[in-house]
Amino acid sequence: MKALTFYDVQDLRYEEVPDPKIEKDDDVIVKVKAVGICGSDIARYRSLGPYVKGNVWGHEFSGEVIEIGSAVTELTVGDRVVGCPNMVCHECGYCKSGHPSRCESLNTIGAYVPGAFAEYIKMPAVNLVKMVEGMTYEQGALVEPATVAIHGLYQTKIKMGYEVAVVGCGNIGLMAIQWAKAFGAKKVFAIDIDAAQLQVAQKFGADVLINSTDIDFHDEIRKYGNGVDLAIESAGNPFTAARVLGLPRKGGEVVYMGIPYADVPIPRFYFEKIMRNELNIIGSWCTISAPYPGKEWMNAVEYIGNKKVDVLGMVTHRVNLSEGPHMFKKIISNPKGYGKVLLYPEEIM
């Protein structure tokens, strides 16, 4: 089969690799129909490199079941599925206590095992979730980024009437805006330095837009009251990762969803907010809970498939899988204008 294999920093190749084969009785082979490029893929392509040289990459996908292992009963050939990319042991103390996101052996497809930038992928049956009737493969490929935002919100105390600030209106930020509304948020502030992205955030449900290019968003939020109940850091930027601490009211919450690929220096003014305002600081990692893969996946499929939440609005580019190496080069050379990019193993153009 054809796949995108990652060899080194900015060395991504479209080449022939062996087809996956059923080896365990719970294995399932899926024909990939659509697969998304994640922000973490961009960071790793630009400067971090692969976990395993030459591994098939990619982790946001949907597809059709074409073969199942002998012990698989909940799926049949022809089922349309989305894939949870997080691989856990199901045996460690964290998994058994209902916290698989803290698994001692947590892994992700495309890292140490073959991923979804390919014509076919093999996964354990438990990692696959059936799509609802009428749901498109494009919607299915966007379930994973949606679950990142849901998982983060589940770590908080969000409830009806909350005021929420979302710092960073990329794909995860856009999802966080929509899900915050679904969780009952009364008002959502969208904060970004990209005016065009803020307009997208408004379409996704943001009530107040703050362009922080030339202003301190801490001061700007204070024009609307004493701070928000919940601040979400979804930019993954060291600068915003520090300054998001200035957004909540006393006793409020901060949840980190973005991944800053650098050290995070925190000025004293913002660090003291943790203590003086008695903030609750929450980290959120991956997309899963118990029973595995979790309510994040069930709810995302339900809400997206029934058009209660929009995901297609963040798609800006659709290209064939064969164009993947060229697309990655284009994104890092000039990232402006690229939202969610979807790749298709079957020719679309």
Automatic annotation (TrEMBL):
Enzyme class of the recorded protein, top EC level: oxidoreductase
Cofactor: Zn(2+)
Domain Enoyl reductase (ER) stretches: 7-343
Transmembrane region(s): none
GO MF term list: galactitol-1-phosphate 5-dehydrogenase activity; zinc ion binding
Tree of life domain: Bacteria
Keywords linked to the UniProt accession: Metal-binding, Oxidoreductase, Zinc
EC number: 1.1.1.251
UniProt cross-references to InterPro entries, sorted A to Z: ADH-like_C, ADH-like_N, ADH_Zn_CS, ER, GroES-like_sf, NAD(P)-bd_dom_sf, Zn_alcohol_dh
Protein family (similarity comment): Belongs to the zinc-containing alcohol dehydrogenase family.
Record protein name field: Galactitol-1-phosphate 5-dehydrogenase
The species this protein was found in: Anaerostipes rhamnosivorans
Lineage: Bacteria, Bacillati, Bacillota, Clostridia, Lachnospirales
